Amino acid sequence: MHFEILVEDPSGKKALDILMPKIISDKDTFNVVDYRGIGHIPKNLKSPTDVNKRILLNHLPRLLRGFGKTFANYPTNFPAAVIVICDLDNKCLKTFRQELFKVLNSCNPKPETRFCIAIEEGEAWLLGDIPAIKAAYPKAKSNILNSYQNDLICGTWETLADAIFKGGLSALLKLKRQLGGHVIGREKSAWAEKITPYMDVDKNKSQSFCYFRDKIRELI
């Protein structure tokens, strides 16, 4: 089976490029496409014409319609699916999923699609495997990692920063003020690239990660 995976930022692509081979078989293929933010689903379900503004939800109607037409031509013995991965942030999960399915149901033909929501943020999937974090960052603060409650809306990436960044969150925010907002995105990508090689996808304690993993395997 082939998977087209859409994620809202480069750190998500870094993580999934490493994690997907741990979930699928050698016979399956995947492609991860990263965007430059989550954005909002257009009210009229018409994506903006400027495709250069790579904001995931803004372009989701166009993307899913395109995948529906493309997947319709795939051979029956090698089907394809699109996986949309978004951070929940502070949204209502039920309402957000309803909005996503409204986009999917507007497509004709509809691509095989799964919506996987990271609760609260993608870093929750990393925090679901504390042994992997400690393997990648031996000096990580155990008291902070052990106090984290999986998939709790609590400032997830900030918690990870406090645990592994030298000087903690305050030092990272100070660096952001000095060098600009790209600093945090760069650090998130570094965390994903360093931690995911150590992750055991079958022992992750993040329910939202397990949902993603299980949906992939169910499709296969």
Write up this protein:
By secondary structure, the chain is α/β, with parallel strands linked by helices. It is built from 10 helices and 4 strands. A 4-stranded parallel β-sheet has the order 2-1-3-4, with helices on both faces. The chain is globular. The model has no long low-confidence stretch (mean pLDDT 94).
Q: What is the number of helices?
A: 10
Q: Topology as H/E string? A: EHEHEHEHHHHHHH
Q: What percentage of amino acids are in beta strands? A: 5-15%
The residue ranges in which pLDDT falls below 50 over 5 or more consecutive positions are: none
Helix content: 40-55%
Number of strands: 4
Largest sheet: 4 strands, parallel
What is the mean predicted local confidence, pLDDT?
A: 94
Q: Give the helix/strand class.
A: alpha/beta
End-to-end distance, in Å?
Answer: 6 Å
Radius of gyration: 18 Å
Topology at a glance:
Layout: E1 2-7, H1 10-23, E2 29-34, H2 56-71, E3 80-87, H3 93-105, E4 113-118, H4 123-127, H5 130-136, H6 142-147, H7 156-164, H8 168-179, H9 182-195, H10 207-219
Parallel strand pairs: 1-2, 1-3, 3-4
Helix pairs in contact: 1-9, 7-8
